[in-house]
Please model this.
Amino acid sequence: MRIKLEKRPDPSRLMLVVTPIASVLLTMLLGVIVFDALGIDGQRAVIDIFLTPLLASYKWQDVAVKAAPLIIIGLGLSIGNRANVWNIGAEGQYVIGALCAAGVGIAAGPVGGPLVIAAMIMAGIVGGGAWAAVPAVLKTRLGVNEILSTLMFTYVALQVLSYLVGGPFKDPNGRNFPATAPLTADQTLPLLPFTSVHLGVGVALVLPFLFWFLMSRSVFGYQIRVVGAAPHAARHGGFDGNQTVWLALLIGGGMAGLAGALEFTGALKTINLGFPSGYGFTAIIVAFLGRLHPIGVLIAGIVLAVTYVGGQVAQTTVHIPNATAGIFQAMMLFFILASDIFVRYRVRFIGSPKSAVSPAAPAPAAGE
Amino acid sequence: MNDRLPNRLELIGITKRFPGVLANDNVSFAVKPGEIHALLGENGAGKSTLVKMIYGIMQPDAGDILWNNQEITVANPKAARKLGIGMVFQHFSLFDALTVLENIALGMDAKIPQRELEVKIRAVMQQYGLLLDPRRTVATLSVGERQRIEIVRALLLDPKLLIMDEPTSVLTPQEVEQLFVVLRKLASEGCSILYISHKLHEIKALCDTATILRGGKLVDTCDPKEETSRSMAEKMIGAGLKEIKKPANTLLGRPKFIVDRLTTRPDGAVGIGIAEVSFTVHVGEIFGIAGVAGNGQNALLDALSGEITVRRGEAIRLDEAPIGAVGPTERRRHGLSAVPEERNGHAAVPEFALYDNSVLTARDRMKMVRSGLLRRGVAKTYTDKVIAEFAVKAQGPNATAGSLSGGNLQKYIMGREILQNPSVLVVSQPTWGVDAGAAAAIHQALVDLAAEGSAIVLISQDLDELLSLCNTLAVINEGRLSRPMNIEDVSIEEIGLLMGGVHGESAEMAPTVVPPTTIVAPTPMAPEAEPAHAH
Amino acid sequence: MGTDFVIAAIITIIGISTPILLAGLGELVVEKAGVLNLGVEGMMLIGAITGFAVTVMTGNPWLGVLGAAAGGALSALLFGFFVLTLNSNQVATGLALTIFGTGLSSLIGLSFVGRIVPQFGSSFPPALSRDPIGRLFFSYSPLVYFALAMVFVVAWFLRRTRSGLILRAVGENDLSAHSIGYSVIGVRYLAVAFGGAMAGIGGAYFSLVITPMWAERMTSGRGWIALALVVFASWKAGRLLIGSLFFGVLMWLELNAKAGGLSFMPYAGSIPSQFWAAMPYLMTVVVLALISMRDRGGSSAPACLGKPFLPAT
Model:
C-alpha cells in the first residue's frame, strides 16, 4: 500500500480548523503512551498538563498572565512567517525590550505614574524592534539568512542581560544579587482587582482583533500575504520585498519587546538572570498552531499557556522536569506542520503498484 | 523501414486519468524499427503524458505496452533504459552546477569509470557530429549545447527507441536542421524515433508516420508526406481555425512608447541582462520581439514592467514621460501594463482568490484602495467583469487562481490588464500552453486593443503568432535587440539567422544606436540597472 | 607566553572545535542533498544524553558513541518523516526538532543528573603524551581523530564517488534526478540519517569528553553555530575544518575570559567576560555577512536547499 497525494484546487477550510484541534488531541494521546513507556504515569501527566489548569479556577489567572506574552509575540511572528521571514530570535528581542524598559525605569528613579509606565513600554517596543533591525539590515543589504542572525542575536542578548543586571542595572540595595531594583507600585501596570491579571492581558486580548483587521482589510496586510505567497508576483504588483522584510522584522521585534516590557512592568517587576523563560521560542509554536491567523494565535496562546502552567503542576505531581512541557509543545508543532498536507492535499491510500516486468495481476474479486 | 518487421513498440488502449482530466483516453498505435514516428498535438493534448508512461515515469491506469511484441510494465525510467528506450526531455534534466561528464555519468545505469566514459562520450560525439567539451560546467552552455548533452546521454545507451519531446522549441532554424541530420542518421541505423511536436512543417520534413492526438484521444494515424499542413492542423485542432480579424487599414499613429538604450545588469550567476535595447512603438502598433528562450526576454519584460528599474528615467518614455526609474505601481499609473510569461507565481498568485489577484495589479487604476484599506466589493465587481468579458471559466471571483486551467487563467490575466485600458501593454508568451480557443481569443483581444489606440509589445517564441499579429518585428539574442523590421519585409531565414546570433549583411543590428563593431566584440558596459527592491 | 601555553591552547581549541566540526560535517551532507535541517541543536542534545546513558549503563564509551549516533539518526529520521514523506515546512520542522530534542533529553536525563563517567580521553599509551609535542598529537579523545578522518571521508565521498555525485545531483535539481530515475526521497533519508548520526556524536562529545556528565541544554547553542559553519565553509568539507578551528579560537577566548586567563592581552581586564561569551555568536553573524558580500550575485548553496520535493505524480 502506498499513499497518494492529490493536490486540492483550493485549500480545505474545514481542515484548516480541524487539524490544529486534532494536533492537540493527538499530542495528548501520544503523550500518554510516551510517558508510560518512560515509566511515568502518562495519564496523570497529560491530565495535569492539559486539563488541570483549565479545570482549577485558581489556575486561570496564571494561564491568562502566561498567555499574554505568548499571544503578543506570536502575533508579531505570524506576520513574519506569513511574509516568509523567519524571525526565531524573539526571545532575544523580548529580553532586550524588557531591559530597555528597565533602563527607562532606572532613569526615572523614584518617579512613577502613567507617563513613566508608557515611556517604559514604548522603550520596550523600540528596543525589541531595534534588536530585530540588525538582522533586517543584514538581510536586505547583504542577504544574510535571518534565521541564523536572529538566533545568534538571542544568545548575544542573553549576554547583554547578564552584563547589565550584574553591572550597570544591578540593584544597589540588592545584596549583590544580579537583578534590577524592583519597580515601585506606581511604576507597575494596573491589576484587575484582587487578581494578578495585569493590563498586559487586556492588551493581548485586543491586539489579535486589530491584527485581524489589518491583515484582512488593509493594503499592508495584502502586501505581507502576497510577498509570502509569491514573492515574484508581489514584485510584479509593485510591492517591495525588502520593505516587507523590514516590516516583518520590526513588527516581530517590536511585539516581542512589547511583551518583554509588559511582563516586566506587569508581572515580574524585576529582571534577573531567570527572566528569559522561553516565551520567544514557544511563540513560534503559537504562531503555527494558530495557523498564522490572529484569532488562531489568540487561542493557541491560551493552549500553550495551559501547558506551561500544567507543566508546573506536573512537576510537583508526577515529578517531571519543567522542560518536558517542551516535548508536548514540539509534538504539537510537528503534528500541525505535518497536517498541512491534509489542508493542501487529498490523501488517498492505494494498493501496491504493479511490480516491474511481472504480468498484470488479476483484479481481486469483489466481496472477497 | 519494412512493414513486415515486427513492431518495436505498440500501445493498446492506454488510458491515464488525473484529477479532473482524462489525459489519455484509449490510445493505440505502433512504431516500427527505424521509423521516425511523429506524435502530433496541441499543448495539453496528452503527448507528454503518453511518452512519460512509455518511459516509466508514470504508470497507465489501463491499457498495455508491447515491446517487440511482448507485453511489459515499465516500472521506472531505469527499466525503460534497460529495454533500450532513451528519452530527450523538453525541459532538460540537467544539473547546472555539474560538468557535462558528471551529468552524463548520472544518466548511466552501468557503473563506468569516468575516464572510460569520457572516451565513449567523445566517440559518440565524433560519430554524430555533436560537439561539446565534456569538462565544462553546464551552467556555461547554450540551450542548444545542453540539448546535445541529453542526446549524447541517450545515445550512449545504444537505444532502440529514442523519444524526443518537443526538441526544437528552443532551437534556431539552423540548429533544427543539424538535429534532423542526426535523427535521420540514427533512424537509418535502425533506431526508432518517437518525435513529439506541434510544428507541422517539421513533421512533414522529418517523419514517416504521424499519430495525432486531441484532448487525450487519438484522432488519426497518417503519413505526413501525403497530408497538407492545413489538413493535419485541422485534425490537431478540431474545429476549423478561426481567422483573426485585423483592421484592414493599419495606419500607425504617433510614437507612444520609446525605449532608448535600455541596459540591465545580469541577474544572478547564470541569468542574462539586456544590453542597449532601443525601439519605438506607435499608437495602434503591435511590436513583436522574437527569439529563442533564454536570450533576455524575461529581463526585458522585467525592465519594461518596472520590476527592474534603471537610474536613467529617459531610458523608457511613455508619452514623453520618463518612467525608467520608477517601479511597477508608478508605471501603471502612467498607463503601462505588463503580462509576464509565467502565470503561476508571477502574473498571478495561485493560492489567492481571483479578486485578490485583481488587487495585485489593478488596485490603483480601478480604485480598489481607499485610505490604506482594500475595497473588496470593488475588486469583486471588477473581477466579475473580467470573467464575463473574457469568457473565463471560473466559479466567480472567489475561486483561487490555482483552480483555473492554464488557458482560463491566462484569459483572466489578459482581461485584468486589458480592461484597465492600458495605453501601453507589454506581454510575454501570451498563448504558451494555452488551448487553441483561448489563444484565438487572446490574439483577438490584442488586435482590438491596438485598434483602439494602445501600443503593444509582444514578446514571443512562437513565430507564427508574431507573424500573424505584429506590424513590426525585432529579434532578441543574448540580450541584444536587432533592427526592427516591417512585417511585410521579413524573411524567415533572416529571422532564423538573427535568432541564432548570426549578424550577416542582411541582418545587421540597429546601426543608429550601436556601431556594428561594438556588437561583434561587445565591450562590457557600465551596468546602469539596479534591482527594483534596492533602497 | 611560553611554548607550553601555546600547545595547551592548541589542544584546547582542537578539542572544543570537534563537536561543531562533527555536526557541521553531517549537516553539510544533508544540505548537499537539498535538505535544510535546523534541528542540529536538538539532535546534539539527544546524542549527548543517549551517549551518556549508554556509557553509564554499559561502562563502554565506544558503545556510548554508537548509541549517540543511533539516537541522533533516529531523531533525524523523525524530522525526515515529516519533511520528506509528509512534505512539511523544513524550517519550522527543524525548529520543532530542536524544541523536541531539548525537552526529550531533559526528560531522559532526569535519572542521570549528578552521575559521572570516566572521560572518554586519549587511548594512546600515556608515555606518548608526556612531552608537549607528544601531547600535541596524542592527547585527544578518539572522537577528535574520527572527526578529522571524517573531513577527508566526506570530501572524498562527495567529490570522487558515484554515490556522492548522485547525492549532489539530488540537491542541485531534484526533479531532474527523479526523472532520470534516482530516488530523491531515498537519498535524502540517508543523508538526513547520516547528518543526525554525526550531530549525535558531536553531542556525545560534550557529555563524554568535555564534561563527562549530563546537564540540561549542555550544548548551549553549538548546534546553531554548526549550521552557520556550513554556510561559512561554502558547503566544502575542507573549509569546514578551517571554520571550526576559527570558532574554536573564539570559544577558547571565552573559556579563558571566564577563568580570568586573558592577562596576556592588553586591557583584557576592562572587557566584561560577557563580551567574550557573546563573541562566537557575534562573529558568526559577521562571518555570515562577509560570506554574503562575497557571494553576491550567486551563492554556492545547493540549488534545491530547503525546498520541498514535489514531483508531478
User: Anything to note?
Assistant: Confidence is low (pLDDT under 50) at residues 352-368 of chain A. DSSP finds 14 helices and two strands in chain A.
